[in-house]
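To make this tangible, we now present a fold written out as tokens:
***
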Amino acid sequence: QVQLVESGGGLVQAGGSLRLSCAASVRTLSEYCMGWFRQAPGKEREFVATITRSGSRTYYTDSVKGRFTISRDNDKNTVYLQMNSLKPEDTAVYYCAATILSNRHSYSSSRDAYHYWGQGTQVTVSS
């Protein structure tokens, strides 16, 4: 059973920064491809960022490129999402997700590819 617990959300002014953390209760986090998704009120859950098992490759949705950075510390079983230059449109509940992909160098931006999800953390950006 994989459990994911997000933290670090909160209220911030536009232009500010937050760092989200996702603590995973797994024996070896390096077995999992990890992703961050978000869901704004009235909208579908959307992809934000993903990172390969070793952390060698990352991929972002266009709207956050250059502002957000996904990273991982496999020794600490933790994944991070550093969010800079936040905008009001970044307001959403942010979810951490994990999956096992056959290719260790692969990542995925598809919700359907992820089998394990956290409970989410609220990020609110005021204008």
The chain has a mean pLDDT of 96. Residues 52 and 107 are 5 Å apart (CA to CA). The radius of gyration is 14 Å. The chain has no helices and eleven strands.
